[in-house]
Amino acid sequence: MPEPFIDLTELPNIYSEHLRPIDIESLIGANDPRHAPKILVLYGSLRERSFSKLAAEEASRILRWYGCEVRTFNPSGLPLPDDADVNHPKVQELRELAAWSEGMLWVSPERHGSITSIMKAQIDWIPLSLGGVRPTQGKTLAIMQVSGGSQSFNTVNQLRILGRWMRMITIPNQSSIPKAFLEFNDDNRMKLSPLYQRMVDVCEELVKFTWLTRGRADYLTDRYSERVESCEQVSQRVNQK
Questions:
Q1: Residue 133 three-state SS
Q2: 3-state SS, residue 114
């Protein structure tokens, strides 16, 4: 397993005796890649003190302990879908990160019973296909939400639908953090609670599924109907005007 990118001293709420490294030999084949899993984190708020961003940062620390290389996209400055050219710098940054990644973590607030427009805009700018190639297909996905009120699952349910639409392998576990303003201290760190422990569960499961499927994603997404078509035909069909 790759060495952790973070020390346990940065995870004060972790019971170290129960945090176990991933047993990658139980998950991969002899010829599977062994480099650190590449995880892209997206969050869905631009507030100065954004609880979806704080939750994303907390999860990123756990992912780094598990040996992942983590990159986070800052949605500030990303234009609305179709309101700018695809060559816009923020659009290009997002698409390059999506292509780089082998798994993703999406963290959205719930606003009016749904995901935020900021979260949806990021997903909408990631193309389902580019020239017959699907940049998200076969990659793993974990989903989390934060709420200002009582616990809800509207947002994670919608994120799960979007993950399926993007042809991603969305892990079974998920995290919903109610009354998020009570779950973070003055240092912007998540407090120890069952909600924190569930967040760790989600991260652990994402890493396991990424190791398990990364080396065989091409085979898992190899379909009869698409083998019938050439790449050029696929490109013409999915990119038709």
A1: strand
A2: strand
- The C-alpha atoms of residue 29 and residue 187 are separated, in whole angstroms, by 42
188: left (phi over 0), alpha (psi -120 to 50) or beta: left
Which of 128, 70, 140 minimizes the C-alpha distance to 103?
140
Look-up of token digits 């346990």: 8
Instruction: Quick: pLDDT tens for 177-234.
Output: 999 999 999 999 999 999 999 999 999 999 999 999 998 888 888 888 877 866 667 6
- DSSP code for 236: H
Whole-number average pLDDT of the chain: 91
Q: What is the Cα–Cα distance from 127 to 141, expressed in whole angstroms? A: 16
Q: pLDDT (tens digit, 9 = 90+) per residue, 28-66?
A: 988 899 999 999 999 999 999 999 999 999 999 999 999
Cβ within 8 Å of residue 177, ≥6 positions away: 51, 55, 144, 145, 146, 147, 183, 195, 199
User: Residue 83's closest CA among 45, 125, 42?
Assistant: 125
How far apart CA 156 and CA 161 sit, in angstroms, is: 9
Q: Phi then psi for 2, rounded to 5 degrees?
A: -60, 150
Pairing of strands 169-170, 114-115: unpaired
Amino acid letter, 107? V
